[in-house]
Amino acid sequence: MLIGIVFIISVGSFYLIHLLPGNITTVIEGPGASPANQVKLFKLLGLNRPIYEQYFTWIGNVVHGNLGVSFISQTSVAGTIRAALPIDLEMILLSQIVSFALAIPLAMRAARKPDSWLDRILSAGSFTMLSVPNFIVIVILVLFVSVKLGIAHTGPSSYVPFNQDWIANLESMALPTIALAMGSFVVYFRVLRSDLIATLQEEFITMARSKGISQRRIMWRHAFRPSSVALLGAAGVNIGSLLAGGFIVQYLLNIPGLGYTLIAAINTSDYLLVQGIVLVVSVGVVLINFIFDFVINIVDPRISRE
Amino acid sequence: MSDFDPILLTVNDLATTFQTAGGPLPAVGGVSFDLKRNETIGVVGESGSGKTVLTRTIMGLQQRTNVTVTGSVLLDGHQMVGASEGDKRALWGSEVAMIFQDPMTSLNPVMRVGKQIDESLRVRLGMSKADAKARAIELLELVGIPSPAHRYDAYPGQLSGGMRQRVVIAIALACSPKLLLADEPTTGLDVTIQAQILNLLDDLKERLHMSVILVTHDLGVVATRTSRIIVMYAGRIVEIGSTREVFSAHRMPYTRALLESSPKVSNDPHTRLVTIPGRPPNLLKLTQGCSFAPRCSYATDRCHQERPELQPADEPGHAYACWNPLPKTRKRTVKTT
Amino acid sequence: MSNFSQMFVEEELARVEKPEKREPLGLLFWLCVGWIGLNIIGAIFANFLPLIDPLYQNYNALNAGPSLHHLFGTDDLGRDIFSRVVYGSRISLSAGAGAMLIGFGFGAPLGMLAAYRRGRFDSILTNVMYVFLAFPAIIATIAILSFWTPRSLLKIIIVIGVASIPLVYRVIRTATLNVATKDYIIAAKVQGATDRRILLRELLPNIAPIGISFLLIGVATVIALEGSLAFLGLSVLPPTPSWGNMINESRTILQQNPWLAIFPSLAMCLFLLCLNFIGDRLRHHFDVTEVKL
């Protein structure tokens, strides 16, 4: 099943590039390229061979870890991706830690006392937040942080890799982390709160209360586990979409992750790089969903039995 | 109260009212009775008579918002009405416990049953992990579950209905409560299992010296297992007395209707089922008179206008609420199975 | 959130949050409807409103703050922000409406049919759709739009619309499945009702509430998506105003002119908030649990 999906995705990413209008050779050579050069390049790229042959050559290379060498930048596609990927991962990791650390306790509090002032503020706030697209969040954040507070944050080389200087690294990741964490928090809080409220109405919770155990224990030991299924589901989808959609944040804040690289690749018509990134990201998303499904099964054995 | 006081529970003028969108709903009104130690009292009535709300209110488990409870519930000296959640929690499990109707929904489906029993032992009695596990397995055996050590690790979904209810009983009894509230414990089970569970409860209450409030709509269940019976209708007690009296010398027509409407094995084949005409009243729109009057074949004008209070019958402890009660007799012809 | 995960969240919430009785729609609901209506009217009739020409560059008033003449101020080319915001709403609203028209126009009937008919048709179609769902649509959208020049609103509508078909399909199909297995549908079938009648009279009214609320959320998502695309230069390009490209333009002049960032953002956020709120309220109002005895 997984293999099937990955296979289709690879075909999709491969074909996608070839579907696009525009002659690759003109792009590479420049608009003034002579027809003779174009033909030579055509043959060199193997574009004259039948499409399925091109596909199999490419896939063969991919399996060996060779995603080709970009014609634009003259560097290995796999290498570029390998450099950019950890940045995405760091961004995702940091933002998810923050959003879970906030969402879980707050949702528990809110669900315990629905319609309390805390609950109302949080629910209204998160509802409002989800109406704010993440690019607006960033623009406004930038407006306040750099303009009003005068803290310099972005420039072309504001990102500092982790192993160089981890403090500067965390500083440069602060804004993207906040932006992504806000979006994720909203999702997790709403889903968890909702599910918790529903779970708390089940009879086994009343039974647990009648055993004389504390409310806190009931929340964490009894209510949380069944409700976490929904949370995990949301997390799987959310993280997958962060991997695919984190480009906007990266682009705005000059963080050279996969998204940023993808945009740059598209702008320079570096089709090999685009192809490689599309493949890696798609496979990544599928893998994430797969992993989360697996974890959900462990948490709630009912699902596998039903 | 000292341990020598024979009365374990005193309920006095207990009333539970829910605030609903349609107005105040008096689910339970003016309920008063005593329960001695080691005594079993049955509470019978149709659906909607307030039986379940009564047990939850006695325990203090009713929902926290939009509900008003007045009156007094004295459990072994502790006042339950108006007590703080913390105070009530100190009593739950160790003084009073409850078992619910549907064992599938009263057990946490994603937690192993053994751990669910452990929890009471460790949290309420402070037992260590190992001790709690050992005791849990003992309890499983006590409630009649075969291969208890093996079943300790089972999930509720892996057990049959009867076994699940046994687990629920084990959990309730884990800390040896003095009072057990059993809310229709067998209604959701197969008929063949029902008797087993009831016998188990009888056995356990003897061994553990518990008082039991047994709520059911099935009269056959209470006939031989209770010493007294409370008959409820529309949230109020309409008759209360010893089991024998209520079955054979009841005064309230509703009690008679209830008794008559349960099908009996001793009837001839093709005997028509007796039903009580009409439906239970809408508690949001209660009339001034007796709540049963619209359906009662003995109703008089006074019954429709004035609500009867409980008045004592001949035998001590027997009371009924009716203006036009059935005449006193030595024996009624309504037989029980 | 400018990604599809919000739709997933709504699916989840719809499953879990079921109020016990009809909740009234409320004053806030109607206020939001009013705001949406106002925006729509503004978008359609912009030409007839007394607005300053959105393309006119007034060199005497560059980066001016809000004033009576320029309600929202001007941008760095002297163009009136207020009128640009009003004209810009055309882009966002058409994108949202158009894309959802395509998405629901194809995805919804297919989803309903598949859920109702089941069988091979359903299995094949659903598997195909699920494969498409696994593929991150955002990337494909960006890739396709960036190579498909020149930029135009229509292209955005088509690409996003088509990309949303699998998601709409899944949502509608799931909703229909929940209803189609209910007893009253089987009862209707047994009574001899034709498929068409069942679909129209029984199924449709029952999935309409959820369908409409997803439609609204979908529109909101598309509008936000257009904003993101504008940042990448994939939406309509200036001087044609759109909320997205205005916010994009504001990035370089944040220090001198915060207004160019603030007003289009406000306009977009308010509109999205109203959409989401209406969708949420509708769902709460119609999707009531069966009364427990």
Can I get a quick summary?
The complex is a heterotrimer of chains A (306), B (337) and C (293). With 306 residues, chain A is mostly helical. Chain A has helices at 2-19, 24-29, 35-45, 51-63, 77-112, 117-129, 134-148, 166-200, 203-210, 215-245, 247-253, 258-267, 271-299, 301-305.
Can you tell me about this structure?
The complex is a heterotrimer of chains A (306), B (337) and C (293). Helices cover 77% and strands 0% of the residues of chain A. Chain A has 306 residues and is mostly helical. The longest helix of chain A is centred in the N-terminal third of the chain and has 36 residues, at 77-112. Chain B is 32% helix and 23% strand. In chain B, strand 11 and strand 12 (319-320) form a beta hairpin. Chain C has a single domain, classed as MetI-like fold (Orthogonal Bundle). Chain C has helices spanning 5-16, 27-44, 81-117, 119-134, 137-147, 153-180, 183-190, 195-231, 243-250, 258-286. Chains in contact: A-B, A-C.
Structural class of chain C: mainly alpha
Distance between the termini of chain C: 40 Å
Helix content of chain C: 55-70%
- Tell me the fraction of residues in β-strands of chain C, as a range: under 5%
